[in-house]
């Protein structure tokens, strides 16, 4: 930690006004003081390594140079992961922490090409391989002797995986599968690391045996020679080109021209192709859910929460040191954090980060429970887990993208500079609105579950899903008198969600009765359906937060500030969707003023704790990686220092002057 | 134009379903068939020039290479501008067209370093120079014999220009000004082209003469030697480093250490420093408004409208050729444009683009009128112009940023690729939310005008501003019965705006009565004040659109589709702020269903015209610069072709394999 005397005076003052013990909240958020200690040790082990330092920051490199630098660092990172395990005798899944704490992105400012090797290639081998296949492949992948990617999406198909076109045709004569890419749109497109960083891939393809189409299956395919790295015969590989962000992820394309692989390289845990080509489906298709759900859980847990934490830490600290204009003439310039409009931008982001933090915790625990149940053959709670992962991923990433943008804009022009790190956090966050299930599609998947459950409940059955128990009583709740308390507001969210689901059901019924087909009726109700899913998600998130406050043991001071934040986020979300609450909840027009007042009052109450709150997120300066957000608040010195790292600032005159400008100017005299 | 047979079948079909004459609408939007003809000639003249072609697309270059390539192209562009003027005997302000049609961004994908030379340096010389100064400097700037930038913003101050710290102290002994940058925060920061592309700057500094502080004034300062381009003694220059976008703009920093310039290099049209240091203020400060307003008018007219046109053209065409999943089992995959949720994302963006197009036209005409009035010494309408430019810039750029993002997300993963051009359009658009007046600050400026006018009207006086005449009758309008017609909805927007302004006035009054100071009361009402400004802006924009429909002569078919779009945008904006309309307008809860129905019905009505509408925006393929948006719809071929331009795809194996990956893999066996 930097010496106290070097810390910006405004920030130092802010830290003295904080009403609660920052370390206590940090420990709570981590899950205990011991976890905080381990996390700090972990982060320092990885980030205090000078071999990750850049001579020139990544944003000044060419696309190709950036890739080369990424590979250099990735190899160091993977070696360090092994070293950490050995040194600390740590058998946990280290990569999960790398991801959760944002170490990979701290090193490259972006996702790295071998993410997919760890988060998808390896889990697929484990999840879909037979015991023999696992013993052959998993140790090689685990030790990084081979590097793999997961090739599902194609140029022409992302969302609708049944439409994938890559084929795998079994040839019983040679006991091989023959892989082909029959069209340009069948080219695999997007897999991370596929461009130049992997020699293996799990490939999803339409299986044909005995002349019969057997649906999508997964195959292990070697794509590059391990000695020369040259693509194997019949295989076309490249990277997909420059993107909005995540350019070090090396997303690639892949096409097959009669590529043969042995029979045993189809992953056969769930279905079997015999030597003669006979096909046998062995297990429940719903088990496929599990793996898809896992990545969505990770997105909510790591990406949504972490990127909101980072952005709002940067913006709040900057707003404490930035002084601009005067609230009162005669006084000195005001900290921009004292402007009501600035508080209104930033404090709800703090609250948003926390409510998703707790919701992600619920989701993570639910995932563990359901995984155990699945292992015991119990599929009962899988649809609920799936539905909640879908809407939390969709609403969470959308809220995170908006939150990060709000933080960036709240930093004015300086937020537009890459040295603030806010642009980079944004591109990373918004990418997750699309990948691993496009958000609108996910909301409609949740909606299917909601509609189904709603109809079940209406016929008198009870729901087995605790997240949907409100369907039984949301109309009764409307009879209560409004008070602007957390409990009352949380209840209003359920009233809105329930009413919206009811309205969707009615709309579809009405359309079908008027002669529209079921499928068209669904499409014609889909705007409303996505809104119903969103309302359900928000009601759930608020409820989880409320329950945390009701069941955890905090100090009085922390309870107070967490209550302030809870009231703030409820008030904000209600005001932003006021029409819904006026139509569908016990909120009356005469109560609106009290909500607006509550909102403004929360901003005032949170003001002295704003810096303390972001400090409690305890993000290492190297992870923030921001000139505006560092713990010491020496913003202007850092901005200037970073600017001077631009290669253009190494020479007083760029060569383009002699080459182009000078002749141009002369010609104009 | 590309031959018909090469056009994607889906797009070809879409074009046959269009109900109106695309060329008629194009001509209307241009301002007549003659303007369309000239625009096309102009665009072709600039864009059909192979010297603007890239060997390697800009996104693969390093920061420095990108800059050098930019300067090469800028010199060609400026030569071509002269050539056009001569060839066509065209005395118009050519650069305005370059900007309006997006030619500069088409050439570099980004703003160019000499934008500021034309849009700010030159106008400031003209606007603030005496006739003698003008005759000395303007011809040299106009012929590009010297290249200038406009240095106002500093590292520590953007919004609050009175806080700028650069000093200019008059030394009557030598009849010179001495420029100094007393602190790091006083460094000029952000001026476009300042980094390495200009040898002159207009510098804003705090003037001191005879030991007295005289406030901010403008000075012409040479910053680089014209022969060697080396920064002059006492001058420190560099670029500010990498940014979210607009990296070819070469934004720079600048500091002075006792730099002396002759007395005649202070721009003295509005105030004078005599040889002996005596200071004389000659004219009205409000005249400074004019120049600031001009750039905001340009932003609404060019950037907001044009970037929405481009984005929605790309997204609609892509959605017509992209097929994904099936609306009806058994059928072939559906065009994603047939999904209600996709229509709900895109069609409102078409409407948004058009309403701002018309509002910008109003603003442009208002600007011309007020400029003439100013020349005649009449300042009456300046505050209204200023207030409208502020809120239209703020709400327009915010809506544009959201619209562009919506289009990008609607294109799924492919929208994230830079070859879609959507990321680049976004960074350009969102930058305008901050520059030339941060949006929240601008909304509060409009709010000041609204509050002042409101109080005037309440005391019985009439407003001289036609945009505010609704303040006299918004409460009466609430008595009318709701019908979901354009007229009724437009009136509701005024009811909401008026009521929100009234509420702000009441809130401030109440606070002041309770003992809060006027200044604190303003701050504590500022969330509401920004919302009131926004409501005013939307009411105005809708009203302009309605008046265009009422007063222009369109064919029946075009009138129909423009009415569809008008109803759609009203319905969308009402639903998005339903709470406001339920509280403050004649809309009753029982009317809400009819608005939702209208919205959905508009989507259906617009569906057959979607491609026709974006075709009518008539954006040249080279300006769209998008693999997803080209007129012919050959999306997948273009994506693949662009991907292969990546330098990483020029070799089968990147050098990082031998350098890093191979040793790493070997060590893991």
UniProtKB/TrEMBL annotation, chains A, B:
Domain of life (superkingdom): Eukaryota
A Pfam short name: Acyl-CoA_dh_M
All copies of domain Acyl-CoA oxidase/dehydrogenase middle, residue ranges: 150-259
GO molecular function, one term: FAD binding
Active-site residues annotated for this sequence: 436
Presence of keyword S-adenosyl-L-methionine: no
Keywords from the named record: ATP-binding, FAD, Fatty acid metabolism, Flavoprotein, Lipid metabolism, Nucleotide-binding, Oxidoreductase, Peroxisome
GO biological process: fatty acid beta-oxidation using acyl-CoA oxidase; lipid homeostasis
Transmembrane segments annotated in the record for this chain: none
Domain Acyl-CoA oxidase C-terminal positions: 486-666
Protein location: Peroxisome
All copies of domain Acyl-CoA oxidase C-alpha1, residue ranges: 289-451
Gene Ontology CC entries for this record: peroxisome
Main localisation: other
Cofactors demanded by this protein: FAD
Positions contributing to FAD binding: 153, 192
Recorded metabolic or biological pathway in which this protein acts: Lipid metabolism; peroxisomal fatty acid beta-oxidation
Domain Acyl-coenzyme A oxidase N-terminal: 21-146
Family to which this protein belongs: Belongs to the acyl-CoA oxidase family.
Name listed for the protein in its UniProt record: Acyl-coenzyme A oxidase
Organism of provenance: Cinara cedri
